[in-house]
């Protein structure tokens, strides 16, 4: 088979949640793709179930087993093992529409783009919608830098699985997921890939479904949530070293990094057992310096809210804690 797209699916303890993922892969109208199931030392039979479900189908797939190292290490192995011209990252408890691979691949080839991205729905496990990002997306092509700026400023954003990345772009620039981070590593990956790309194309159509499960990592705030800050600080350093682009640096310094601090405080405020760590974090001189640099990219209600909260965290953090406990 002439493989055009490799879908990389990390697997870890998802036996009770993987069926819809498998169904969506089996239903694809595109034929020239492979699925790489990266079994990250899963203690259950998730990959065996995937094998039994797909073995009599037309889907080309491989199951690669490794010692447990986390989702980022699994995705990185998938990049190395992929045979497709483009790669897509799909978590094993999410799913995609049947025409996603076909329509995105056809458009990315037609436009000769390095990356193509689309919309997604954030939904409950019963299928009810929580939110979607369609209104933030506009059809058309932009430079890699402009796509990265849109992501950093939140003007346009999407989930990691709503992208197709040219594999050579990732390999040639050694773009990998940070195995040391549990949060924001996917956004950091997108920013780096977009910034390295010559052309990025957007289709403002929803194909991907990001499912909220009760025990998903995004529903369990812990000290690992501090990675949102560290990942963005490290992304800024990456930009300084690789691009020396003042616009990208400014966007990280004046928006993404201070906003990350606000988000951490908001999350920690709702967990009494994390309050001491929260105050320890926001008293650090480098964190206060980063927080003080927040500026509104443009006047919007949510950006004004972040501006107010960034100042309040600096001077009246107890008020912010009470605010989030009432929200």
Give a written overview of the molecule.
The mean pLDDT is 95. It contains 13 helices and 10 strands. β1, α1 (19-26) and β2 (33-40) form a beta-alpha-beta unit. The relative contact order is 0.11. α5 packs parallel to α9, α7 (185-196) runs parallel beside α8 and α9 runs antiparallel to α10 (275-282). Strands 1, 2, 3, 4, 5, 6, 7, 8, 9 and 10 form a 10-stranded mixed β-sheet that branches. The radius of gyration is 20 Å and the shape is globular. By secondary structure, the chain is an alpha/beta fold.
Q: Proportion of β residues?
A: 15-25%
> What is the number of helical segments per DSSP (H or I, 4+ residues)?
13
From the N-terminal CA to the C-terminal CA, the straight-line distance is 53 Å
Order of helices and strands: EHEHEHEEHEEEHEHHEHHHHHH
What integer value in Å does the Rg equal? Answer: 20 Å
Helical fraction equals 40-55%
């Amino acid at each position: 088979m002439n493989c055009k797209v490799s879908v990389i699916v990390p697997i870890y303890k998802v036996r009770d949640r993987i069926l819809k993922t498998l169904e969506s892969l089996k239903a694809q109208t595109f034929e020239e793709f492979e699925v790489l199931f990266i079994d990250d030392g899963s203690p259950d039979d998730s990959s065996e179930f995937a094998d039994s479900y797909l073995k009599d189908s037309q889907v080309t797939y491989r199951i690669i087993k490794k010692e447990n190292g986390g989702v980022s290490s699994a995705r990185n192995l998938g990049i190395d093992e992929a045979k497709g011209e483009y790669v897509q990252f799909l978590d094993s408890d999410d799913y995609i529409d049947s025409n996603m691979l076909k329509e995105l691949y056809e458009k990315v080839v037609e436009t000769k783009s390095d990356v193509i991205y689309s919309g997604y729905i954030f939904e409950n496990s019963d299928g009810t919608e929580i939110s979607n990002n369609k209104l933030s997306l506009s059809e058309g092509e932009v430079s890699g830098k402009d796509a990265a700026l849109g992501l950093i400023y939140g003007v346009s954003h999407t989930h990691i699985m709503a992208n197709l990345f040219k594999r050579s772009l990732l390999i040639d620039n050694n773009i990998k997921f940070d195995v040391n981070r549990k949060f924001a590593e996917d956004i950091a990956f997108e920013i780096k890939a977009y910034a390295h790309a010559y052309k990025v194309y957007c289709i403002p159509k929803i194909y991907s479904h990001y499912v909220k499960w009760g025990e998903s990592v995004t529903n369990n705030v812990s000290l690992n949530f501090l990675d949102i800050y560290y990942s963005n600080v490290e992304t800024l350093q990456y930009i300084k070293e690789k691009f020396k682009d003042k616009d990208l640096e400014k966007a990280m310094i004046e928006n993404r990094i201070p906003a990350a601090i606000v988000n951490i405080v908001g999350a920690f405020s709702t967990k009494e057992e994390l309050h001491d760590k929260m105050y320890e974090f926001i008293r650090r001189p480098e964190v206060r310096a980063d927080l003080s640099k927040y500026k509104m990219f443009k006047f919007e209600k949510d950006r004004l809210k972040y501006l107010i909260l960034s100042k309040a965290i600096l001077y009246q953090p107890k008020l912010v804690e009470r605010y989030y406990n009432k929200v």
